[in-house]
Amino acid sequence: MRPVTKIDELANEFLDTNVANYPTYATYLGMPGGERDLDDLSPAAIERDYQLAKSTLAKLNSLEAVDDVDLVTKDALSNSLEGEIAKYESGLTFRELNNIASPAQGVRDIFDLVPTKTAQDWENIAARMRKVGDSLHGYAESLRIGFESGNAPAKRQLEEVINQVKQINNPEGFFHSFAKGATAEGGLSDSLKKELAEAATAATEGYAQFGEFLTQMMPKANPKDAIGRDLYAILSKKFLGAAVDFDETYEWGKEELARVIAEQNAVANQILPGANVAEAVAHLEKDPSTKIHGTDALKAWMQALSDKAIEELGKTHFDIAPELRNLECMIAPTKHGGIYYTGPSDDFSRPGRMWWSVPEGVDTFDTWRETTTVYHEGVPGHHLQIGQSTYVKDTLNKWRRLASFTSGHGEGWALYAERLMDELGYLSNPADKLGMLDGQRMRAARVVLDIGVHLEKPNLEGTGVWGFDYALNFMKSNVNMSPEFVRFEVTRYFGWPGQAPAYKIGQRIWEQIRDDYKARKGASFDMKLFHSTALNLGGLGLDALKRAMARA
């Protein structure tokens, strides 16, 4: 086992401090502590985090790496800290509100991960639900700084979050339903059931007050969606762990989109000779053999496909430890429209989970569309990547294993994994390949859309800049998904700048890293070894990954 170094100690100390400061982070990581608490999201807490990032970076810069593991840790942690400092100093921290990945969702979403087996677990949940109002109040005060300074979130995002709050604030809303459904080994006492009901009411009221705050702030909301090149550069680098040329990337995105469309047309012709993509999709949508009806059936189908992939790939193309072979496919209790993965706890007592938040009104699903989603979220995608990082305790410190993550690395790997499954023959059915290409097309399209919107580039017709209606129609023409999902996604891009392009840009960089590695190794190139070496580094910024793999 590798000895713990000074850089390891500092990285672990930084993680431990954040876990102590943020109880939901501990829950997310599956670490003990803070089970009865929620996060302080106030301006004072944000200032505390800023000072911690600056002091940690100063200490890190004073330390010398003793081996290559240290060198990678220093590279990755420096990039992460610099990103957080730049985000705070730009004011972006005080406008962090969107329809998918802001504290507005996070305060509720953490209840999807809390332990629920015992009466003690439910006592903790009741205590935590009572803290919802305080956590959201602190968050509101932080947002108020953005509203009062003119660096406010966009009006569109306020409207979306207000609607999400309304879903929570009704008699059948999340907290009431969660409390009513409480069960535990040995049962729950009447007094605990009453406490849960009262706590659910308190949590719901906390969200109601937060919704009122957002409504009051509406006149101060930013009417403009675009954040501009300078702020976009900060967020893009944070999501990628790398700086890219936006103008070159925008042009590459258009070229990649055209390439994927051409590939789709070729596959469409295999499905129905002479057909274009739209005609092939219409043909598939009439095929009852590709339909799944209801979320229970969707969950069972996802689980079976995931289990098969883990079993087969673990025999051939990847080293998959026993601890990683349990992946649970879940239907999320929310109806916001996202599909996401949550990693295992540090001891693997809580497995990795694939979540599907199915939008209201959506009850039918197509297997050809969703096969690649299972590979993206599961194995060889996020579950293998994040689970492996958690597993390699003998080499990596806690921060590297549990907390070092960028969208470009994580989502880029997942898109890389989709293409890899095609290379390995798992998408030999043209319909399944068309579904994969539909996802790849969407990711290429949003590189163009996201950069176009936030840098206020002329739209593709030259009729003005990228407005919401134009962007919505652009995405509708480039994906075969429900209107509800497309609207949710486009709203996400407008409110979470730089994150969505990180998928396809990350895939591009992953493929460049593999090509460079392969060229360097020549006849000795081993794909399985490449994957093991890269995944055993943990989740790095892409520049740090590139430098580490150049030395491998």
Nutshell version of this structure?
This protein has 552 residues and is mainly α. It contains 24 helices and five strands.
Q: Can you walk through the features of this model?
A:
The protein has 552 residues and is mainly α. The chain folds into two domains: 6-237, no CATH class; 238-502, no CATH class. The protein is 63% helix and 4% strand. The protein is built from 24 helices and five strands. The chain has helices at 6-21, 23-29, 43-61, 68-90, 103-109, 119-129, 132-149, 155-168, 174-180, 190-217, 229-240, 246-271, 277-285, 295-316, 367-377, 382-391, 398-403, 407-423, 430-454, 468-476, 483-495, 501-521, 527-535, 542-551, and strands at residues 291-293, 327-331, 339-342, 352-356, 364-366. Strands 2-4-3 form a three-stranded mixed β-sheet. Strands 1-5 form a two-stranded antiparallel sheet. Helix 15 (367-377) packs across helix 19 (430-454). It is globular and about 65 Å long. The mean pLDDT is 94.
